[in-house]
Amino acid sequence: MKNLKDLGPLVRKVMKVTFCQMILISLLYGLSYAHSGRAQDLLQKKISLHAQNQKIADILQTISKTSSVRFMYSPELIGSERKISIKAENKQLDAVLDEILTPLNIEYEVFNRQILLKRTASANTPDNTSPERIRTNSLAVIKGTVTDEKGEPLPGVSILVKGSQRGAVTDTNGSWELSLSEGETDAVLVFSFVGYLPQEINVGNRQLIDVKLVPNSTELEELVVVGYGTMKKSSVTAAIAKVENRNLDQIPAGRAETALVGRLAGVNITNSRNTPGSAPTIRIRGAGSITASNDPLVVIDGFPGGSLANVNMNDVESIEVLKDASSAAIYGSRGAGGVIIVTTKKGKTGKPQLNFNTYVGVGHAIKHNDWISGQEYYDYQARYINRDYAWQGGDVTLPMDDIRRPDNMKVNSVIKEGDYIWEDILLNAAPIQNYNLSARGGTDNVSYYVSGTYKNEQGVLLNSWYKTYSLRANVDVKVNKYIKAGFMLNPNFNDRRTAPVSMEAIVKTAPFVSPTINPNGTYPRPLDYWGTNVSAQVSPFATLNGIKNTSSAFNNVGEMFVAVDLAKGLSLRSSLGGNITYSTAESFTAGYATTNNLNAGNATDSRSINLLNENVLNYNTTIGDAHVINVLGGASYQKATSRNAVLTALPGTFGNEIIETLNNATISQVASSTSKSVWGLASYFARLNYAYQDKYLLSASFRTDGSSRFGPQNRWGSFPSASVAWRISQEEFMKNADFISELKLRASYGVVGNFNIGDFRYLGSIGNAYYSPNGILTKGQAQTSFGNNSLRWERTQSKNFGFELGVLNNRISMNIDYYIKRTNDLLYDVSIPATSGFSNTIVNIGDIENQGIELELNTRNFTGEFRWETAFNISKNNNKVKSLGGIDEVINTHTRGMAWLLRVGQPMFSYYGYKLKGVLMNEEDVQNNPIISGSKPGNTKYEDINGDGKIDPNDRIILGSYLPKVVMGMVNDFAWKNFDMSVVMQSSLGAKMYNLENLYYQGATVSAMRRSLVENQWWSEAEPGDGKSPATALSQLAYVSNSDFYLEDASFVAVRNIILGYTLKPEILNKIKINNVRVYASVSNALMLTKKGFNGYNPEGFTSGEINGISSMPGFNNGAEPINRVYALGLNLNF
Amino acid sequence: MMSGCQENILDLTPPSTLTEVNFYKTNADMDAAVLGIYSRYQARISKDWTLTEMPTDNIHRTGYFNIGGLDEINTLSFSPENPLFSSFWINTYNAIFRSNALLNYIDVPTDYPANKKEQYTGEAKFMRGLLYFDLVRRFGGVPNVTSLLSVEESREKGRATEDEIYELIITDLKDAIDLLPEWKTAAKGRASNAAAIALLAKVYVYRQNWQAATTYLDMLDNQGFGLQSNYASLWKEETEDNDEIVFAIKYLPSVNGQDLSTDFLPYFGVSGIAARGSENAFPSWSLMKKFHQDDTRKKATITEYWKAPTSGAEDPEIWYPYVRKFANQHVAGASGLDIPVIRYADIILLKAEVAYRLNQPAEALAQLNKIRERAFGSAEHNYKAADIASEDAFLDVLLLERQLEFALEGERWFDLVRTGRFITELSEIEWSYNPVTKLAQTVKFKIEPHMKYFPIPLNQIDLASQGVLKQNDGY
Q1: How far apart are CA A943 and CA A959, in angstroms?
Q2: Which of A815, A939, A1106, B62 could form a disulfide with A856 if both were Cys (CB 3.0 to 4.6 A apart)?
Q3: Domain containing B232: what range?
């Protein structure tokens, strides 16, 4: 054993860059590798070896396989072709290594299960000691520094003159020096280091060559975080996707999820409401539940049940998504929607580092461009009025202001005068800014990561914002050889004001309404211009100023743990964590902001405390040479309590509108209350990972959960899983297939659960029911739901088949996964006969199936000075209702006529309505076609599906689905010299949107009009339009909106983000004494292409959300916000 | 330690919600449970007009479509899928469940003060009778549920006959008469002995059991009931508790209000009444034209000319007829105006009807003219014996008077159905009217005899076991 002190910096460096994750996990989970007693064990391990004239590299690889150790060295150190012979019979590993390495002047050191090879100290001047050294006249001395991706010096990097055996190795400061002979000026230097991509540099005339190495992200030894531990990526047997935070924190967005868009196959992230701070919907491999939540479980640093709202991208190290049941089953109880594991940055041993990251940007809404105003607007209004007048039998030839016309059939010429485009007035450039300062460092015994962030995202709409203030502290302490402890704190405060209305309510404001303020402080309303027939709408400014919806939340996730090494290979980790949230929401509505001139207000305070204790035993062992076993067992207890207080003012009771708090109003007895709830979860789990020769891999887990949400008889659910993988590329017969670097087949099966139905649903609850006998408000009570003692866990079984291929040293790697996910015993608010007293009750009935295929393709297109990497993914999911517990279908019809259908054999919540065939052109058409009673010329001509000569509910058919058929994502990363660029694209094909908001832009209630929505309409027999667009008006919706007329193809291709960065050269950095400086510019939503005929702002903008119970209307859009294009400039500093 | 920890986590009880396990234990619980029955009825009755007024010649639809299925009711196309049928069915059976639950647990508490147990039992039976009367008049025979059913039992529950349902109603109401407190002592808005008598009398009229009807109608004499002298005062909150109200559902403004008052107002509201209306239906010309100019009920029922609240003082009023009956001053959607279930005026007209059927035309005429005189403030427009000379003539007069007196109060459809007049009266209706051209918009409907019953809601048929719940003929 050599002097550890000398090697310290190098070793720390290597650990840091290559095995950071491993260390992190050993700290976290108490795997007992990282103390020196362990190193002795490893070196004393007995091995047998026979080698006859073999390359040293191959011999080392053989040792590595049979004894589960790994060697780290730069290739130059050993010499690629050098061959030796050795014979060892049951000898200690250190003796064998000494025999091989000493003659080569190579010494070694052990860390974790890694053995680091290094040139012996006395021989550490490469120029003099290389046996193959060619003596030349040293004409040029070139030198430089090698740094890692973060700008930190990288020791131990080998530099080789291409085509020779000459080279150098960087010292602890990452510096190197090399003499070149005459005629070698055109030499190419090859920089290589384990865990990094090799880089070739043309020397040219340069004497100073600074190089930044890029981590090899497809390196097989990459670790992925799984539930309660980590695994080598190569050993993973399940469908797990991973995103590392390379530049994710540079995407200007209020929420962490946005940065993940387009990066993961099978993980669909949609931002249906684009208001500051709004939560995106995440669906992993489709939705399987109707009543219970489909949201994935979010696990933050091992704490399940967190929220991505409280995750700050700057602090994120990596995000893993457990997609199939076999990987999620270890979180059994709540894994049905998949599991998202967020790992935050931890302290690192070494020199303290200070990072400052910031971006400032400005967002612009992507608007419509076809508004009608002025004279043309008047003309369209006149056509509108005349169409109505004609239907009533009026004489449309009368001039518009003729007194013979009824008042509501006249058009006021005042509307010609204004041409205000309210969309332009309301949507303004909105700044976004983010500042993050973090410090990271540590000694051998204590390491820390602390960070603070301030983020301010303003909305494009007046008076909307989302501000975040957060701190994070992760501290790890190594108490002694056997005990480690750690603390994590993440206080987070956010403050938000949201617009009280959706877009259509304000953007539809007619162009003749002035945005100026009246002398008396009020805002002009449409009615002020044209009294008759106009909507009662107030000015959007009155709405946006007069309704104050604010909310703020303080949240802290805190955790402490102790990890103890109990025996060789056996460790225990015990943790106690808490997720505490206090939130308040206040709303005040001034009288002038409403159509009925009644002020209103309410205030909500809530608090929730979620405590978790987890205890995990972990055992690792290797039996013989080839059997690697990891066993884990644990118990977890979680209890969450919440309290909610609501105060509501009676409408119109604020004494004045100066004081907006509720002490200035009369409190409503019925709508004010406090309430509490509680739930608990007790879980026991175990997992076995077994690998034979790193070729045959097996993983099996079992978890059982007890939940207070189910009755005593059915409280417990069990969730088993098993998965296997075969690394064909490790087989002997594949050894010659050099171009294949990885070939793996995977198969898995697992069961996960869902209990997201709210507390105490198994009990029939008694609710308040008010009545007013004798004119006195009196609280009555009534049973409001059926009890169901047999309520039990919803179970999702999934099968997954995976195929992984890496070729050309993983320059091209591909993953294909096929899955069938079947949700049984659906927690489903099933409809029941009303004679029972209720219309529905929650039961376990029904099956939903999601079946799909996912492909991920990663390529390194160029690897030289110009680098280009592409990550592409495509996924297709088919959703199907398999059973609804005895009934064939459930139809949920909206008042506008469109229905959402649950039918066995069809995707959940398909659109169900009438098929538009054309337009009833004239009275004759009305007579000769099957119609809905009352139809007039201009109304829809419907397809008579059953051919019975009339249009009735039997003629309704499935018209499509809100679900996309295919979702794609692509990320391209480029680097050239000091420049880097990243382009993220996303595409979704085949989804349909029910764009009911169109009606507001068609002039109903004398609102703003969009040319694309009115120009092709049927206006009269003389102006029949394109024959496909029926007459629209509020009064005609019964003949339009029940058909596919408002269904639009919401397919899109988007460039979600482009980042262009520039890193300052080291020579400049050295002068200003900063490790690293990077500046970048980014554009979000640079391009959004939608199909012709799509009229919404946002192809993902569903205002009714996704699936949220039996009455869901996914795909319904009535005023979703526009998408913002955000331009931002950013700066990263590292000291 | 582990099991202790586990119990602590899993054996939890709801901290803020009572459950069926710990409720129905005391007198106070049962009092609250009775209010629960009224509460459901209170929520339902304000939308009853969608089924009982919308298909008649009293109102027609507007350009606003806030209520799914309303348009089909308006055009008399009754489809089993119509959500209005199923929501009525569901709400009514939910209230029946609440009544059954009360009766099921009535013996549990031991702390009843004197007469309370009887009162609660009587209230639950009265309400159950009323609820089944609502059902049987709309659907004919319906499932007869008088106990708490499991989901499985409810799936097997088929329809009883119309006669069986009436038998149940009559039994419940007779029990209620014996158990309920006197009208004078009962709380306003809660059932009284008189309310049960009145309802039972009405039930007997529907059964055409004139003898029994007259017995019960006569029991209401000398109880203190009488007609209000001013018809319009019935629709004012200040005077809503009066001697004409046999039974009404009570509301309080804002905190426990109804939306019926808002339903018929113009969208832009009416000055002094409400800032906004739902404009769900307009009065039909068929109704409007039947009011005599001097009939005080006309002004109390319909306003013809309207002015937007925001228009200037010099702006003229425009022809925009709307239902005025429930339009007291209120906060939109939360009016405090009570909704009568049985007015004494109804008792009087039932007496007229029964008297005529029992061959006492003079008595019938006297009762009719009580209503007539109140409406006109004088005897000038009283009916003469000649007006009711034939049975048909009497029916014409009776139905007209009931239409004008109870317009928008949910009587018209049932009156037309039970007298067999719905086919003739509703085949042609005048909806809107143009005062300039003096022309009304006439619409024609094909009414068929089977439409006297609404269709059983299709979703309920589907939810019951195959073949258990049978559809009405013709649908």
Answers
A1: 12
A2: A815
A3: 2-236
What is the DSSP pairing of strand A673-692 with strand A696-707? antiparallel
Is the CB of residue B71 less than 8 Å away from at least one CB of chain A? yes
User: What is the helix (H) or strand (E) element at residue A677, kind and residue range?
Assistant: strand A673-692
Q: How many CB atoms lie within 10 A of CB B470?
A: 12
For residue B227, count CB atoms less than 10 angstroms from its CB and return exposed for 0-12, middle for 13-18, buried for 19 or more: buried
The residue type found at A371 is W
Cβ-contact B472, B450 below 8 angstroms:
yes
Q: Distance (Å, rounded) from C-alpha B88 to C-alpha B85?
A: 5
Q: Does B12 touch chain A (CB under 8 A)?
A: yes
The answer to whether the beta carbons of residues A113 and A42 sit under 8 Å apart is: yes
- Assigned token pair, A360: 């400032």
Q: Is B43 part of any domain?
A: yes
The interface residues of chain B toward chain A in range 451-470, judged by CB-CB distance below 8 A, are: 459-460, 462-464, 469
Domain count, chain B: 1
* Residue A766 forms contact with B (CB below 8 Å): yes
What is the 8-class DSSP label of residue A1022?
S
How far is it, in rounded angstroms, from Cα B439 to Cα B302?
Answer: 19
- Please report which confidence band the pLDDT of residue A77 belongs to, taking 50, 70 and 90 as the band edges: low
* Domain assignment present for B149: yes
Residue pLDDT, tens place only, B366-397? 999 999 999 999 999 999 999 999 999 999 99
Query: First vs last Cα of chain A: how many Å apart?
Result: 35
Residue type for B256, please? N
pLDDT digits (tens, 9 = 90+) for A1012-1067: 999 999 999 999 999 999 998 877 887 888 899 999 999 999 999 999 999 888 77
Amino acid at A1021: E
B220 within domain boundaries: yes
> For A836, which of B9, B77, B149 is closest by C-beta distance?
B149
| B93 → closest Cβ in A650, A787, A837 | A837
How many CB atoms lie under 10 A from the CB of residue A152? Answer: 18
User: Other C-beta atoms within 10 Å of A769: how many?
Assistant: 23
Asked whether the beta carbons of B431 and B443 are under 8 A apart, the reply is yes
- Sheet of strand A240-244, all strands in order from the earlier edge strand to the far edge: A240-244, A316-322, A339-344, A297-300, A303-304
- DSSP string of B359-421, one letter each residue: T-HHHHHHHHHHHHHHHHSSSTT---GGGGSSHHHHHHHHHHHHHHHSTTTT-HHHHHHHTT-
Closest CA to B442 of B65, B64, B60: B60
Chain B's closest residue to A683, CA to CA, is: B6
* Interatomic CA distance for residues A341 and A317, integer angstroms: 11
Which ipTM value was assigned to this complex?
0.95
Burial class (CB in 10 A: 0-12, 13-18, 19+), A329: buried
Tell me, what DSSP letter sits at residue A16?
A: H
Give the closest-approach CA distance of A687 to chain B in angstroms: 20
Which tokens belong to A653?
């009771």
A:509-528 residues touching chain B, CB 8 A cutoff: 525, 527-528
Strands A350-365 and A371-372, bridge-based pairing = unpaired
| Pairwise CB contact (< 8 Å): B89 & A834 | yes
Does any domain span residue B321?
Answer: no
Q: What is the DSSP letter of B427?
A: S
Q: Which of A576, A506, A512, A507 is nearest to A542 (CA)?
A: A506
> Which residues, numbered 153 to 172 in chain B, qualify as contacts with chain A under a Cβ-Cβ cut-off of 8 Å?
153-155, 157
Question: What is the distance between the alpha carbons of residues A1076 and A356, in angstroms, rounded to a whole number?
Answer: 10
Question: In CATH, what number is assigned to the domain containing residue B20?
Answer: 1.25.40.390
Whether the model clears a pTM of 0.95, i.e. scores above it, the answer is no
Say if B150 is an interface residue toward chain A (CB within 8 Å).
yes
A758 contact B CB<8A:
no
Closest CA to A755 of A331, A340, A1111: A331
